[in-house]
UniProtKB/TrEMBL annotation:
Gene Ontology MF: a single term: small ribosomal subunit rRNA binding
InterPro entries cross-referenced by the UniProt entry: Ribosomal_bS18, Ribosomal_bS18_sf
Protein purpose: Binds as a heterodimer with protein bS6 to the central domain of the 16S rRNA, where it helps stabilize the platform of the 30S subunit.
Gene Ontology biological process terms from the UniProt entry: translation
Domain of life: Bacteria
Entry annotated with the keyword Transferase: no
Similarity section: Belongs to the bacterial ribosomal protein bS18 family.
Protein name per Swiss-Prot or TrEMBL: Small ribosomal subunit protein bS18
Length: 70
């Protein structure tokens, strides 16, 4: 049973910069406990996964996103 490979969300929507202030975008890639989703699960390319992780960590540090969700 072969699955179609997921298309990267950022290349699909022509997003060049992942902004830490764009909380709606970042929340799409967080799990129910507030953890960053894995690449295999989200389908994001490795280039944008690194940018996404950096943006989420910055947003957490600035107090825009929680470290854990309860």
């Amino acid at each position: 049973m072969a699955f179609a490979k997921k298309q990267c969300y950022f290349t699909q929507n022509n997003i060049k910069h992942v902004d830490y202030k764009d909380l709606e975008l970042l929340k799409k890639f967080l799990g129910p406990q507030g953890n960053i989703m894995a690449r295999k699960r989200s389908g994001v390319s490795s280039k944008y996964q690194r940018k996404l992780a950096e943006a989420v960590k910055r947003a957490r540090y600035m107090g825009l996103l929680p470290y854990i969700a309860r």
